[in-house]
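Collaborator request log, item 7. Partner lab (contact: R.S.) asked for a structural prediction of ROK family protein to inform their binding assays.
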Amino acid sequence: MAETSVNRGNGTEKGPLNDRARIWGGIDLGGTKIEAVVVDARGEVLGRARHMTPSKGGPGEVVKELYGTLGEAAQTAGIEPAKLAGVGVGAPGSVDANSGTLAHASNVAGGWDAPYPIASDLGDLVGGKVVMGNDVQVAVAAEYKLGAGRGHRSVLGVWWGTGVGGGLVLNGVPWRGQGSAGEIGHMVVKPNGARCGCGRRGCLEAYAGRASMERKAHAAVKKGTKTILFDIMRDKGRTRLSSGIWSRALKEKDPLATRLIHRAVAMMGVAVASVINLLDVEAVVIGGGLGSRLGEPFVERIADAMHPHLFITERKPALRVAELGDLSGAIGAALLAGPQM
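Returned to partner:
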């Protein structure tokens, strides 16, 4: 009987892999990375893998990389992908869970607008059923059930990474609206403001999304601004300004990185406070690449930035860093496929 590492983001332990009929796969598709896990009925992680998201090639290349990442995670768990009870995928953009399609994926593999049958194509490779959900919505559901949202009936999740995504649990029920509820990144925080990747102006993502901040940094350098951001990027052999690069630049007090992150935090405060004023949720969970990397000090800064915009300042929601870390999206996608906590 095989043994493998069980990892829920907070530590590891050894445990037997003894019930293959009740094992699910979960994949988190991000703008820069793909994270895959294999979990049991309790949500314990039996295997995991991470690959870089294709920077070009469109949805076909994305499907191939999704399958490759899932296959590696399954291998570490000692199981073939075809033996999984089900596979869930959390993806950014407009997800149609009924048809298994993904559209308006502007931050993935060069982007595409028209609906593409991700679930069907991946299902053909896996040899089984694949279900889909919005990446942040499934991550927030995982945090609600297993992580930082435990003990609260209403939770707003804000995933700060390549873009800025959001998800809601209201009175214990994930709230999806007509399919795109929780898109806090496309709340307008400044009318006629900065151009967003979605094509509109003034969205939160135009100020706080890592891709937007990178474009702003490039533009500043062209105008003569000095920064170590791209020096760090080259030293690390990266082609994009990852969360780790921003974190290091902040630690070294790079003026441009400091200014852009300060602007991002200020706009996050506006958007999160507006959601609180409307929905009065009990807790806010901050996750995503930047949210998890920058951690508690920056969650506290977001709380401070919220304060001037809150209608009822004496009853603030709890603000917490996502406990499941980088695995929250993949675990949430796996839960979407079958395990019920």
